[in-house]
Structure formats: structure tokens, C-alpha cells
Automatic annotation (TrEMBL), chain A:
Stated family: Belongs to the ABC-2 integral membrane protein family.
Entry keyword Protein biosynthesis: no
Membrane topology category: Multi-pass membrane protein
Name of the protein this chain belongs to: Transport permease protein
InterPro entries from the UniProt entry: ABC2_TM, ABC2_TM_bact-type, ABC_2_transport, Nod_factor_ABC_transporter
Parts of the chain that traverse the membrane: 53-76, 82-104, 138-156, 162-183, 250-270
Molecular function per GO: ABC-type transporter activity
Biological process according to GO: response to antibiotic
Keywords: Antibiotic resistance, Cell membrane, Membrane, Transmembrane, Transmembrane helix, Transport
Keyword match Cell membrane: yes
Domain ABC transmembrane type-2: 51-278
Subcellular location as annotated: Cell membrane; Membrane
Gene Ontology CC annotation, any one: ATP-binding cassette (ABC) transporter complex
From TrEMBL, chain B:
Pfam families reported for this sequence: ABC_tran (PF00005), DrrA1-3_C (PF13732)
Species assigned in the record: Blastococcus mobilis
Positions of the ABC transporter domain: 9-239
Domain of life: Bacteria
GO CC term, one of those recorded: plasma membrane
Record keyword Transport present: yes
Family: Belongs to the ABC transporter superfamily. Drug exporter-1 (DrugE1) (TC 3.A.1.105) family.
InterPro entries according to UniProt: AAA+_ATPase (IPR003593), ABC_transporter-like_ATP-bd (IPR003439), ABC_transporter-like_CS (IPR017871), ABC_transporter_ATP-binding (IPR050763), DrrA (IPR005894), DrrA1/2-like_C (IPR025302), P-loop_NTPase (IPR027417)
Protein name in UniProt: ABC-2 type transport system ATP-binding protein
Keywords recorded for this protein, A-Z: Antibiotic resistance, ATP-binding, Cell membrane, Membrane, Nucleotide-binding, Translocase, Transport
Gene Ontology biological process terms from the UniProt entry: daunorubicin transport; doxorubicin transport; response to antibiotic
Primary location: membrane
Subcellular location, record wording: Cell membrane
Lipid bilayer topology: Peripheral membrane protein
Length: 278, 325
């Protein structure tokens, strides 16, 4: 043991003392800068945990392949005709699945105590939540792009061209910003990241199947068709399909955006309140 | 303790319930500036809840508190600007590298990109995590995580630091490192509120201790006063030759106090809370030519402190129902 400079454990006491002595508190950063710093954190996570991205895109990719080649002929007469129908819907499914991760990562922060650290900092309080949207949006765009590229590789041709495809992707991403607050609320209420994942997918899976993503609802029994018609996921899929086909369906687009705004208006305030008090 | 030193933390009548659980049932604290103040209590006593209220993470149901003169309720933002929290859970982001964690906090506290990087490097080196700085924190050992956690709390040196069970679950080496860091922080002028379950830890670090049980302060004083109130540490001696135990017992009985023979035929224990008396006892043994294999001066455990203070053993997670019955 050398009591003059180091402890038995080895932490360099002199360096620790210097490190402690050397700081002066800088002026507080602005709100935008704080939110952007949290955005940077979100991007780092995308970079470090790419498995997450694979996890969420693998299911829609499998669905595209399975439905196109297994059921395509039976449902639409030919695989290429079915791919033409299903792809815009798969874009919706792929990106919406990704929104569940907003809740999962928030819950991880909560259960690991990271939220406590952020909340004890002298920062603009909504910044962590707003900043996480930036990382989320990268995930949404990647998840959507994977499906579009896969579709094109399999022979899908958007009649609306690249512009139509990009417009559809943009619409779905904006819708996801609204939906992600629902999962953020779940993330703040449930006990573990796994619970968020399970309940999140339990909600979004049936909603996706009970939509017009896979089949034309006119073939369904009456009550089911009525539900499918008002399911927001159907409306979003219709809007996305219309954009990709180059014939924008104004009503579906406006309703999709309104639903997104409505979800954000209800669930964003609940999220911020829960975040502040948990 | 000096009573006229300015107070870093001043709490009166803090209360907090979670449903039927009265986690904190009226806690008063007066922590002088520049000290390490220990809050000692068993699991479930309410320590973390007290810290979470003082760090403005949760609002008390009743009572009030000031941190460096700022009211936690009315002026929470000013409080957050002066404190930092090292939570029970090592609150670092596992999906980021150690360096990224520190740069993130530097940026959030207002350092420029360059200053945040330089500061991170300085802390990583001082806390000996430089080598692992590029690895994701989820691959860190417990000790490294805890050091990173503390480093993250002093990216900008806080005036008041809350340390919640900083060494629970750590090996002795890492524990010593954390203690050394805490001492260096106080030497630099920071006030530390230390929650712990270990009397030894409070004894090593704290200038004053409040013992809490079931959400209430049940005793307060310096570590010396507390140990004296419990009345006993113990000198443990193991002899080279068990045959000489009667002789050793006689020597220690004269020099120190009441001797107890242990099941181990070479060992004996003398009740004693004074280190000098214990040293005299060991020296007397050596002078009598009794060979000693090892000796140690043990401190009363938290359990013994609790037994002495409350008449019951420290139990975990008391509920209101238990308390009422
Ligand atoms: N968020 C919470 N919800 C419900 N009960 C809680 C919560 N936080 C703490 N408690 C309860 O309050 C009591 C005190 O807990 P805590 O402050 O964590 O004690 P300590 O840190 O001393 O172990 C315990 O009985 C605990 O179960
Ligand atoms: Mg605790």
C-alpha cells in the first residue's frame, strides 16, 4: 500500500482531486440545444444497438415474402399483382411496429434509473422526450426504406414514382410521431421493457390484421368490414397506397394526419406528466 | 459538530407515502456545509425516498426542505442547478459507451463540445475507466459502473451530492475506491449526503449520522457517539498455539476487559470499543511472549446498533400495518 498517492484500490487520488477542483459551472444550454443533445443520444443508440432495428424490420420483411409468394396467387390471382397491393400496407406495418420501441426505450431508462439522473439535472424538462423523437425518426425511416427497397427488388413498381414513395414514407413517419406517444405512456406505466413490448405488439398486431393492409375489406363479412373501414391503420394504408400509386387520396391523408395529431394531443401531455412524477 | 456552520441541507417534517406504505414519516435533517452526512438504515427504511425528495424527483406529502438555501418545492430548478444524484441503481446509460455518457452530461450541463470531450477524458483517466471508455456500459463491471456513475455526477462539480448506497454489491477494492473519491469530493468543498446500510461505511466517511428506521430518525450523532451508545466493538485474537489460550485470556482480561472464548480453540474475543485499549492488549500479549496469528478490532454491526437503539433487529420493508400493530 502506498498511502501518499494511491489507494489500495488504485484510483489515483491526486488525479481525482484535480478533476474535482477543475470545474466551473458553465451557463445553462438553450432549450433547442438540450433537445438536440438528447437527439444525439438517440442516434447513438441506433448505432450501438442495430439489433433493435433488425428485430423490428425482420417481421415485416418475412411477411412481405410470405404473403407475396405463399398467398399472393390465391388472394390476388398472381404474386406480382398482390405485391403491388400489399407493399404500401407493409410500409405502414413496418414503421408502426417500430413505434413500440419508443415505449420500450423509455421504460428501459426508467427501470435503469437513467430517468432519475436526467430529472435531477437543471435542464428544460421536456427535452429528453422531444430529443428521443430524433433517434426514433431515424428508426422509422430505416424501417420504411427497407420495405420499399425490398419491394422494388421483388418487382414492385410505385406508379407515383420515387416522389410518391417518399411522400408515403413521410406520411407514415409523421403518423408514427403521433402514435409513439401511446407507447411512451405504456412505457411509463408498465413494469419492464418486456411488458411494454408484449402489450405493445399485442395491441398493434391485431389492429394491423384487422385493416386493409393484407386484404381488400369488401371481401369481408359486414361487421368486420365496418370495423376495418374505420380502423385508422386502414385509413393510413389507403393514404399510403394512394400516394405510391400517384393518385393522392386527400381525405385519407387528412384523416391520417388528424388521427396522428389527436393521438399526440391526448398522449403527449399524459407522457410529460407521468415523466415528471415517476 | 459545529452548530453554527451554514447548512447545506435543512429538512423539517418530510413525509411521503406510497399507497398504504409510509415510506417517510416525518424526517428532520440538518446537514452542515462541507460535511459528509450519513443516513444509516436498513433496507426499506426510507433512505432513497428522502434523497428523491431532496433531489426534487418526487414531491413530499408534507414538510419542507432547503438545499443550499433554496426551497425544494418553490425553487426546484435552482436546487437542480447545485446538486447531483448518484442513485442506488448506478444511473448510467447502458447502451452508450462510458465516454459518451460523460460527454452527454457535459453537453446537457452547458459545456461546449470540445470542453465536454476534454472534461470526459480527464474524468475517465482520474477514475481509471479510460481503457474501457469506448465499450458499452452494459459490459462494465459493478465497480467500473459505479465509478462512471460518480464521474457522471461530477462532470460539473456539484455543491451537494446525494450518494445512495454507493458501495452496496461492490467488492472491497472497488468499495475503497468509492470511499476515496467521496473523501476527495468533500476535500474539494462538496457536501455529501450518504445513504448506507453499513455502519462501517458511515463510520469511515461521515462526520454526522442520522439512523433511520421505518421512515423516522431514531438517533443522531457522530459515529463515535453512536458506537458509544451501542457500547461495544470487539477485539478478536487468534493465537499461534491454542495451548496458551488460558494465559492469553488472563493477560487480555487484565489489560482490556471481559474475555469470551470462541469455539475455535485458538481464538478469543474481548469486548472493547476503544482502539488504544485494544492496542495495549495486543502489546501485552506480545510482551508475555504469546504468539499471535492474527487480530482485528471489529465494530458493532448495524444489527447491533439497531438492537441497542430500538430493541428490535433491523427488518426490511416495514409497512404501515406492521407499524400500527
Ligand atoms: N415508488 C414507490 N412505490 C411504492 N412504494 C415505494 C416506492 N418507493 C419506495 N417505496 C416503499 O417505501 C419504503 C421505503 O423505501 P426506500 O425509500 O426505497 O427505502 P430504502 O432506500 O431505505 O431502502 C419501502 O417500504 C418501499 O417499498
Ligand atoms: Mg434505497
Amino acid at each position: 500500500m502506498n498511502p501518499t498517492t494511491t489507494t489500495a484500490g488504485g484510483a489515483d487520488t491526486a488525479a481525482v482531486r484535480r478533476a474535482i477542483a477543475s470545474t466551473e459551472r458553465p451557463p445553462r444550454p438553450g432549450r433547442l440545444s438540450t433537445a438536440l443533445t438528447f437527439g444525439w443520444r438517440g442516434m447513438l443508440k441506433v448505432k450501438h444497438v442495430p439489433e433493435q432495428l433488425v428485430d423490428v424490420t425482420i417481421t415485416p420483411v418475412m411477411f412481405v415474402l410470405m404473403f407475396t409468394y405463399l398467398f399472393g396467387g390465391a388472394i390476388a390471382g398472381s404474386t406480382s399483382a398482390y405485391l403491388q397491393y400489399i407493399l404500401p400496407g407493409m410500409l405502414v406495418m413496418s414503421v408502426l411496429f417500430t413505434t413500440v420501441y419508443s415505449g420500450i426505450s423509455l421504460n428501459t431508462d426508467l427501470t435503469k434509473g437513467v430517468v432519475d439522473r436526467f430529472r435531477s439535472l437543471p435542464i428544460w424538462r421536456p427535452a429528453p422526450l422531444l430529443g428521443s423523437l430524433l433517434g426514433d425518426s431515424v428508426r422509422y425511416v430505416v424501417a420504411g426504406t427497407v420495405i420499399i427497397v425490398l419491394g422494388v427488388a421483388l418487382g414492385y413498381r410505385p406508379e407515383g414514382g420515387a416522389v410518391g414513395a417518399l411522400a408515403a414514407l413521410a406520411l407514415v413517419v409523421v403518423f408514427s410521431f403521433g402514435l409513439s406517444w401511446v407507447f411512451s405512456v405504456l412505457g411509463l406505466l408498465l413494469r419492464s421493457p418486456n411488458a411494454v413490448m408484449n402489450s405493445g405488439f399485442m395491441a398493434i398486431f391485431p389492429l394491423t390484421f384487422l385493416s386493409n393492409v393484407f386484404v381488400d375489406p369488401t371481401t369481408l363479412p359486414g361487421p368486420l368490414e365496418a370495423f376495418v373501414d374505420v380502423n385508422p391503420i386502414s385509413i393510413l394504408a389507403t393514404a399510403s397506397r394512394s400516394l405510391m400509386q400517384g393518385q393522392p387520396d386527400g381525405t385519407a391523408i387528412v384523416v391520417s394526419l388528424a388521427v396522428a395529431a389527436g393521438l399526440a394531443a391526448v398522449f403527449l401531455p399524459i407522457t410529460t406528466r407521468l415523466y415528471r412524477s415517476r | 459538530m459545529t452548530t453554527h456552520a451554514p447548512l447545506a441541507i435543512e429538512a423539517t417534517g418530510l413525509e411521503k407515502s406510497f399507497g398504504a406504505t409510509r415510506a417517510v414519516a416525518g424526517v428532520d435533517l440538518a446537514v452542515p456545509e462541507g460535511a459528509i452526512y450519513g443516513v444509516l438504515g436498513p433496507n426499506g427504511a426510507g433512505k432513497t425516498t428522502v434523497i428523491r425528495m431532496l433531489a426534487t424527483l418526487i414531491a413530499p406529502d408534507a414538510g419542507s426542505a432547503r438545499v443550499m438555501g433554496h426551497d425544494i418545492h418553490a425553487d426546484g430548478d435552482a436546487v437542480r442547478g447545485l446538486v447531483s444524484l448518484t442513485g442506488q441503481l448506478a444511473s448510467v446509460d447502458e447502451e452508450l459507451t462510458g465516454r459518451e455518457n460523460l460527454v452527454l452530461l457535459g453537453r446537457l450541463l452547458g459545456l461546449s463540445r470540445r470542453a465536454a470531450k476534454a472534461r470526459s477524458q480527464e474524468l475517465l483517466e482520474a477514475f481509471e475507466i479510460a481503457e474501457a471508455s469506448g465499450r458499452l456500459v452494459k459490459h462494465y463491471s459493478g465497480g467500473m459502473r459505479r465509478r462512471l456513475d460518480i464521474a457522471a455526477s461530477i462532470v460539473v462539480t456539484p455543491r451537494v451530492m446525494f450518494l445512495d448506497e454507493p458501495t452496496t454489491g461492490l467488492d472491497p477494492r472497488s468499495r475503497n475506491q468509492v470511499w476515496e473519491i467521496a473523501r476527495a469530493l468533500v476535500a474539494g468543498g462538496t457536501t455529501i449526503l450518504l445513504c448506507t446500510q453499513y455502519l462501517e461505511e458511515a463510520d469511515q466517511l461521515a462526520d454526522g449520522i442520522a439512523v433511520i428506521d421505518r421512515g423516522r430518525v431514531i438517533a443522531e450523532g457522530t459515529p463515535g457517539q453512536l458506537k458509544a451508545s451501542v457500547g461495544a466493538g470487539a477485539l478478536h485474537v487468534r493465537l499461534l498455539d491454542p495451548g496458551r489460550r488460558p494465559e492469553a485470556a488472563a493477560v487480555l482480561g487484565r489489560a482490556v476487559g471481559a474475555v469470551e472464548l470462541e469455539p475455535d480453540p485458538a481464538a478469543l474475543t474481548v469486548s472493547c470499543s476503544d482502539a488504544e485499549r485494544a492496542a495495549t492488549g495486543v502489546a501485552e500479549l506480545a510482551r508475555a511472549g504469546v504468539g499471535i496469528a492474527e487480530f482485528s478490532l471489529g465494530q458493532p454491526s448495524l444489527d447491533e446498533v439497531f438492537l441497542a437503539l430500538t430493541g428490535h433487529m433491523a427488518e426490511s420493508d416495514h409497512t404501515l400495518e406492521e407499524q400500527a400493530s
